[in-house]
UniProtKB/TrEMBL annotation:
<dbReference type="InterPro" id="IPR014758">
    <property type="entry name" value="Met-tRNA_synth"/>
</dbReference>
<protein>
    <recommendedName>
        <fullName>Methionine--tRNA ligase, mitochondrial</fullName>
        <ecNumber>6.1.1.10</ecNumber>
    </recommendedName>
</protein>
<dbReference type="Pfam" id="PF09334">
    <property type="entry name" value="tRNA-synt_1g"/>
</dbReference>
<keyword id="KW-0547">Nucleotide-binding</keyword>
<dbReference type="InterPro" id="IPR033911">
    <property type="entry name" value="MetRS_core"/>
</dbReference>
<feature type="domain" description="Methionyl-tRNA synthetase anticodon-binding">
    <location>
        <begin position="440"/>
        <end position="549"/>
    </location>
</feature>
<dbReference type="GO" id="GO:0006431">
    <property type="term" value="P:methionyl-tRNA aminoacylation"/>
</dbReference>
<keyword id="KW-0436">Ligase</keyword>
<keyword id="KW-0648">Protein biosynthesis</keyword>
<dbReference type="GO" id="GO:0005524">
    <property type="term" value="F:ATP binding"/>
</dbReference>
<dbReference type="Pfam" id="PF19303">
    <property type="entry name" value="Anticodon_3"/>
</dbReference>
<comment type="similarity">
    <text>Belongs to the class-I aminoacyl-tRNA synthetase family.</text>
</comment>
<dbReference type="GO" id="GO:0004825">
    <property type="term" value="F:methionine-tRNA ligase activity"/>
</dbReference>
<keyword id="KW-0496">Mitochondrion</keyword>
<keyword id="KW-0030">Aminoacyl-tRNA synthetase</keyword>
<dbReference type="InterPro" id="IPR041872">
    <property type="entry name" value="Anticodon_Met"/>
</dbReference>
<keyword id="KW-0067">ATP-binding</keyword>
Amino acid sequence: MKVKPHLTVLARCFDSVRSRSQVSSNLLSKWSYLRISSRFTHTDSSGKVFYITTPIFYVNAAPHIGHLYSAAIADCLHRSRVLRGFNSRFATGTDEHGLKIQQAAESVHKDPLRFCNEVSERFKHLFVRSNISCTDFIRTTEDRHHRTVEHFWTVLQKKGFLYKGTYEGWYSTQDESFLTPTQVTEATDVNGNEIKISIESGHKVEWMKEENYMFRLSEFRSPLQQWLKENPSAVQPEKFRHMALQWLDDDLPDLSVSRQKSRLQWGIAVPGDPEQTIYVWLDALVNYLTVVGYPESHSLWWSAAHHIVGKDILKFHAIYWPAFLMAAGLPLPQVVNVHSHWTVQGKKMSKSLGNVVDPFDTSERYTVDGLRYFLLRQGVPEHDCDYDDTKLVKLLNSELADALGGLLNRCTAPTLNPAQVYPYFCSSSFPKGCTKEPKGRAKPEDYKMVESVTELPTVVQEHFESLHIYKALEAISACVRQTNGFVQRHAPWKLDCTEACDKQWHDTILHVSMECLRVYGTLLQPVVPGLADKLLCRLGVRPEERTWEAVHFLEKYRGRKCPFEGRTLGPDRGVLFTRLERDMGKEKPKKSKKNKLNSQ
Ligand SMILES: Nc1ncnc2c1ncn2[C@@H]1O[C@H](COP(=O)(O)OP(=O)(O)OP(=O)(O)O)[C@@H](O)[C@H]1O
């Protein structure tokens, strides 16, 4: 059997799908967790659609902040695309089969399905609570998924990519992964026994020999190399694409894709051979197709697939999955976006190790938006990041409570803004284009700030798209600092508002600052939806005015009409983000007496 990659055919297939116009709205899941209002889901003229996925999470134990991190990255991308007017679908869910689950359920004397129901519910609850706006939630124990896996298996079999053989080699139950001898090393367990472990994960491996079904993975080595070499964006960031290519430099043996039922009962039976159970990773990866209705109605969404995964499952997404898809004659995902890990004292946070930070507890202490902001502001795709409560408190206090909250408070406090309105802009106080020799009252630094905030939506969008979300937040934070500097420099509280000229300048300072805040609120929606909503409501920005398209920063400065001028502010719902005390995460934070900049 020869495999042809047909990469150009695949590319053409993507293009034809992309050029199709409006997506039928009934294709969008009506799943109740979709939180973004449909008024933001108009499709732009290009008719672009996106299908974003997180990994489905293994339900051997309750979720930790690493899982929330994957979901928050995907949520940020999904929300930003919806706000830009695209049709975006965002799927997550739980992976519920395999030996590890079978053993975890046995250890607590529970029926596996009951065990899965409970843990899956925890994940679902976490995502609802954390404002993860997924449109689909899939469980691999659902009937629809069983049918899809059986169909997918049959396609692979009919096309001659499966054969029955004897697999003999190393297997890690913790990773549900087969390993070659070069991927294994010796170690000593806690009782001093010599054991073999996986070099990559450190988990124990066992020698197994059994008859099962093999997938002709070896035939895909060169098509996979071609795909990765010809599509620099196929696996991102670059270091992970490089890693996948390095793996392909080694041997790529055929892959065992079933287990004997006597060893593994908790899974989907091989069609036509009830003595064999389908390998949990083949089963799990097919979830991405189940969500979009494979084999009947998948093509539009499937051609726009964008996976977001942790680096621990790179091999499954950059090697096995594309090989399965090529074998089944399906298009490959457009992008596999990889992120690194949250660690605790340098060790990967993991359910199996138990060194986890509980996301329920943490968001209870620091708020949902606080935790989302911290994860996305500190997480760097290329590098691991150590979790630290002190760092979290410091960051949230400085960027959300003091800088952003303080700025909002200054602009809206009744002492400075007694009429509680979006004030008028005076162009003679801040004339356009006088950057070198200011003629009004604005200074060169003020023009620099206007320039930075004007460019900010483009900068932020680019960083969101490449999933360098921390860079987007860094850029927003730098602009917030500039705006605080602007207010501080001109000290509107010192102006005498009984003088017409001072009053105009006072109002202009507030107008410009509020315009900046409106941009920050709009751009922060994908990261901290609750906090951004509070900010925009306070400024009186209506829901339909919160899209990327509606940003139009400082229209009056450019000689155009500003719809916000003179508008009454929204109700005061308290400080934007309450300062946290440095409690090292042991107790609920106490509210400090006042927010630093709020004292103004
Ligand atoms: N420490 C972590 N940092 C970032 N993301 C993580 C982390 N742990 C898990 N994830 C996310 O969850 C996915 C895999 O989830 P999985 O259910 O295997 O979690 P796990 O804690 O590694 O479990 P286990 O310890 O049982 O292997 C990863 O690909 C990644 O997207």
